[in-house]
UniProtKB/TrEMBL annotation:
This is Restriction endonuclease type IV Mrr domain-containing protein. It comes from Jatrophihabitans lederbergiae.
Length: 340
């Protein structure tokens, strides 16, 4: 029996059972392309797991389920959060009010979504259905559902990021960020003086300020969330065709080490991007002293699929400051990462 046949049998068995409260059929994302929408029975809900880590932790991007309903393919998407444990800088009420407004606006304009429930007690949020048209395979239907979710959340994510970035930029300004000319900052980074933390902060400031020279980019360094510290977060509102197709949020990580950055750091950074459930599709790994030869194959693998990792070294930053062309250099490195 092929894997395709096994999946169809599992879905058929769930359809025969007919209990809408049954647990959904769980499929790995890598299995979806093998199943055509036309082969799906009506009714069974499908939950998609993107990956499972070494500890058995499941990573799920959609936050909902897929099902076939007659000739339609439908996603039920849950955008919810526990009031007590809500981690975002924007309050749980305000965040989900923006999500609800986005669903309602899309329902009246595009017409492919509809609110099915709202929650406002201990769990706060919105549950809505999305119609997935022209999806030949189950993978196509899943990708469409994920795209709709990202588009619906974009306004709430932008406001949330803006609140957090305003706090961080104010803190940085009070700490003296932005007062040193870029040429002097390059010299300080290159000198490799100070503690490891001071060297790291200097490179983060230099990189953040260079990203802010690109029209439509708004970069903030040392962003602290409830679970981690991010070197640089970039809000992408660029009108350039190259960046319009990327996600609203981009991340960068800086390594101002005495040696080269190796493949382990690259893989770890790529995992950080993947863990952001489709909200960050592109990241920039900055290593002042360059990259080890062992990273080459990892860059090739990392450039395929949904996530792009762009590698930048000290020469890129130094020359960009000298020539005033960081945007051009960044696009060149992006092209190399995508088409290597």
């Amino acid at each position: 029996m092929t894997r395709h046949d096994e999946i169809r049998d599992r879905l058929a068995a769930a359809a025969e059972d007919g209990d809408e409260w049954d647990e959904p059929v769980v499929l790995m994302r890598s299995e979806l392309a093998a199943v055509e929408v036309a082969d799906l029975p009506d009714g069974p809900r499908i939950e998609v797991v993107d990956r499972v880590d070494a500890k058995g932790m499941r990573y799920i991007s959609l936050g909902g389920t897929l099902r076939r309903d007659g000739h339609r393919m439908v996603a039920s998407i849950e955008e919810t959060g526990w009031r007590k444990w809500w981690p975002g800088p924007l309050g749980v009420d305000d965040y989900h009010a923006l999500v609800l407004a986005a669903v309602q606006a899309r329902a009246s304009t595009v017409g492919d979504v509809a609110v099915t429930d709202t929650l406002d007690d201990n769990v706060h949020g919105v549950i809505y259905e999305a119609e997935l048209t022209n999806a030949g395979s189950l993978r196509g239907a899943y990708d469409r559902a994920l795209s709709i979710r990202v588009e619906i959340n974009e306004a709430a994510e932008a406001v949330s990021a803006g609140v957090q970035d305003l706090v961080e930029r104010t803190r940085q300004r009070l700490a003296g960020w932005g007062t040193e000319p870029l040429d002097a900052l390059v010299d300080r980074v290159a000198s490799q003086t100070g503690t490891a933390n001071q060297r790291g902060i200097a490179l983060e400031e230099l990189t953040t300020r260079l990203f802010n020279t690109i029209p439509g980019f708004q970069a903030t360094g040392r962003v602290k969330t409830s679970t981690e510290e991010i070197d640089i977060r970039i809000q992408n509102s660029s009108e350039a065709r190259r960046w319009q197709k990327e996600t609203f949020l981009l991340l960068a990580e800086c390594k101002n080490w005495s040696g080269k950055c190796g493949k382990d750091e690259f893989v770890l950074f790529k995992t950080k991007l993947a863990n952001r459930v489709g909200r960050v599709g592109c990241g920039f790994l900055v290593s002042w002293n360059g990259f080890a030869e062992t990273i080459t194959k990892e860059i090739l693998r990392g450039s395929a699929g949904d996530i792009v990792v762009v590698a930048l070294d000290g020469a890129d930053l130094r020359n960009a400051v000298r020539d005033g062309n960081f945007g051009e250099r960044l696009e060149q490195r992006y092209e190399q990462s995508v088409f290597a």
